[in-house]
Amino acid sequence: MARSPSNPPPSSPSSPPLIFDRDLVRARAGRARRLGPATFLIERVAEDMAERLKTVRRGFALAADIGTPTDAVRRRLDGRAGAMIAVNAAREAFAAADGLKVAADEEALPFADASLDLAVSALALQAVNDLPGALVQIRRALRPDGLFIGAMLGGDTLAELRESFFTAEAEVEGGASPRVIPFVEVREAGGLLQRAGFALPVADVERVTVRYATPFALMQDLRRMGATNPLIERRRSPLSRATLMRMAEVYAQGFSDADGRLRATFDVVWLSGWAPHESQQQPLRPGSAKARLADALGVRERPLKRE
Question: 3-class SS at 289?
Answer without folding.
Answer: coil
